[in-house]
Fold this protein.
Amino acid sequence: MQATHQTAGTAPRPRQITAAAAQQALDWLMAMQSGELSRSQHDAWQRWRQADGANEAAWQQIERVNQSFGMVPPTAVTLQALDASAQARRRNLKLLGLCATGGMAALIWQQTGGQGGWLTGHDYTSLIGQVQAATLPDGVRITLNTDSALDARYDARQRLLILQRGEVLVQAVPDAQGRPLRIQTAQGWVQAQDTRVIVRELPQACQVSVLQGSVVLQPQGNPDSERLLRAGEQSLLFHSHAQAPQPITPHAGAWADGMLVAVDMPLADFLAELSRYRRGVLRCDPAIGQWRISGSYPLVDTDRILAALPSALPVQVVARTRYWISVQPATGEPANR
Amino acid sequence: MPIEPATPAHLVEAMYVSHHRWLLARLRNKLGNHHDAADLMQTTFLHLLTAPELDRIQEPRAYLTTVAQRLLANHLRRNAIERAYLEALALVPQASYPSAESQAITLEALIQVDRLLAGLPLQAKQAFLMAQVDGLKHAEIAERLSISIATVKRRILQAAQQCYFADLQP
């Protein structure tokens, strides 16, 4: 069927793509991936497209295929989905001694070594309920706790880890070039040397707990007023100052081993900690917030921790919806309704 | 009596009559249950309706087996991808959870990308996705993967050649 006349803007009939046109199209694609094209490069690209129908066909083929790539999640997630064969996943989970069941807030261990973050564009992220470990190129090891995000910015002057959100355990190593390792938070910097340190962002301050070695705290508002923090100590770093050191909370880093450890902990605090690993709201009735709880709880299954609470304390766990759970005093009598 | 032209529907029907019981038994053996076997058998014959050169098939049973195996492999692969994607989604904060429609679109795209990248070495997939999906520059990819920029370009080219111009490859 032939058109009796051509209207302006009608696309030319697609030509066969030649090997040469394909190769040139790929060269142009690579040039664009390396960085922005200059004005003259951009014009040259346009001229190349118009020079030959085969060139234009090759470029349109690229754009057509790219539509699929435009709709997949970030690389880290896409690769995970594509490498998923049930066998491989079961094998990996068995090695890790975990059993991930769908529908529960699973604590998933992943060794990533530098993959991009889901939905946030940060270098390293963890989802709610996820603990994510990674080793940076210089050997520094970071472990992100639930719902955290961190960016790594290394340059000639320093090695900077920017804690954007959440909590991170950093195992520092010395640098071949002698650059200091600094963890940056909203309140200032934690300078670490051969150290094992936990930094956690809280609403108005960040909590720094030193497991090994020592760190120097530098408040952003007052960089000269540094404070040294040693192993076994913790401090709150505010924008204007760093608090005097306190003894470190016992088992501060247990989450990195998948455990929530409570030593005579107020129930309200315990549930607040637990809720960090879950989606939704976990309420504690104020009347029982000061009751004490102790024990080591595996974070891989927070539903089971909640289910076990009534055997540790006279409480009941009421789930109004899947995402609204309330811990209340247990009623002595069966309800008469 | 005029000879009827052998339309695809006729040819498939002829194959169905001759071989469907055989295929069903074979698939039941392989899949272990009747329901899945019947499902796959029907899908296989449906697929044949659009297959080229049905009248040239020399070995119908071998052909049927090959088609069934390929369909089964695609089906399992699709399920594996969907499962992995849903598991990753299960941990997404509620505010960012994609709609059902958005999930369906993403899943189809994942399956398409899986086909495009099939068979490539991991590093080629990584480098290509980081450039095309994450928009990272070659230098950034080189740093994250701890390889040279020249290697990054080689890997990306390898993947790009297959994704865009597979039929032109030697």
About this structure: Chain B touches chain A through 50 residues (CB under 8 Å).
